[in-house]
Amino acid sequence: MSTPDSSLQSRRFLLLYALAAAGGAAAYVPFLSILLPLKAAGMAGNQGVQLLAYTAFAGAICASIANIFFGWLSDITQNRRGWIVAGLVSSSVLLLLTQFAQSASLLIAIICLWQCALNMMLGPLAAWAGDVVPDAQKGFLGGLLSLSPAAGAWVGAFITIPELADAGARLELVVLIVAALVLPAILLGRPRHMVQLVTPVVVQDEADRPYLKTRPAIARMWLARLLVQIAEVALFAYLLFWFQTIETGFSDNDVALLLGAVMIAGVPLALLVGHWSDARSRPIMPLACGAAGIAAGLLIMAGATSLVQAVAGYIVFGLASSVFLALHSGQTLRVLPRPQHRGRDLGVFNLTNTVPSLVMPVLAISLVPVFGFAGLFATLALFAIASAILLATLVIRN
Questions:
Q1: How far apart are CA 274 and CA 179, in angstroms?
Q2: C-beta atoms surrounding 120 within 10 Å
Q3: Of 350, 366, 272, the residue nearest 28 (C-alpha)
């Protein structure tokens, strides 16, 4: 019997961690995409869209600040799991309280507190992977993280099965599912200790760092993800409207089925590409190729005149973005230079997930009325091309 390689993390922990990360997505995707819009519409009627916009804006700001703050606190206390559990419990309680909000101001206040509690869990959870997963497995870890968006979509589909549960019971189901996904890693994970990943590092000079850990490389990684996330957020916000300009009979259920199918197909693809990047020690090349694939999909969509072309373009976009976003999350852990500030620095990277929600409406309002969806998608393709170029410079320099 072969002896396990102590320089690598156990597959058992990696799988349990992937489930916990999927639980993190399940904690917010169904609520923000389905349950909160329904709550806003039920409270404000015709003003529901406006209430949802205010709530999303305030929540995004709170999430951005809280992710950095609690990541920083978990650095100081060196207790990731304690913060994860505290965030899980407090965010679950606050999620259940949203059903009792009867005024717009109270709903917004609860959502802001919920976002803070949720990121008390998500920030330390992301940093925990950096503490225990070595560089040689970060591609595989990224592939596993592609389960997260799929899990969020699946949970949303499950809790909205007709006659399964009322509004309050749906929130309770979300809480139970999230706990069932997150707690096994906390209680049963027992990761191998990786001294080299948690030993504090003091770097006096940029020249002393590997290139991928220098400030220019980190800035390129950050900006490359931001550009792709803007495209991702803008596309999903207007996907149904765009499909209906191509084919009027294309329904919301058709869009949901297409999204679900692409997400499912993206999981094995991301795992395969992640394993390849580990085996070849080429961490950045799949990211550059993924950004180029995103641009290709957007350009196909921009020029689509039939439903077949539209669906084909989205499939290219969806698969490329699944690989890019999952593997980027894993490789971000590689580039951060100081383990003692990992949680805080990951919080800064998390801004690439929240800032696009603030940028996207301005972009869409400026472009769609004048140039149509083709103009919007062409602009987003330019963003993706810029992302691919930024990452290609890292491939060359590294």
A1: 27
A2: 26
A3: 350
First-to-last alpha carbon distance for the chain, in angstroms, is 37
Max CA separation in the chain (angstroms): 67
Q: Are 298 and 232 in contact (CB under 8 A)?
A: no
Asked if 110 and 101 touch (Cβ cutoff 8 Å), the reply is yes
Give all domains of the chain, ordered by start, each with its CATH number.
Answer: 11-189 (1.20.1250.20), 207-397 (1.20.1250.20)
Q: Residue type at 377?
A: F
C-alpha closest to that of 386 among 259, 292, 253: 292
- Report the chain (398 residues): mean pLDDT per 10 consecutive residues: 67 94 91 81 74 83 94 93 96 94 91 96 95 91 89 82 83 94 94 87 67 86 94 79 82 75 89 91 92 96 92 94 91 86 91 84 79 89 96 82
Pairwise CA distance, residues 278 & 275, whole Å: 5
Whether 151 and 23 have beta carbons less than 8 Å apart is answered as yes
pTM above 0.90, yes or no: no
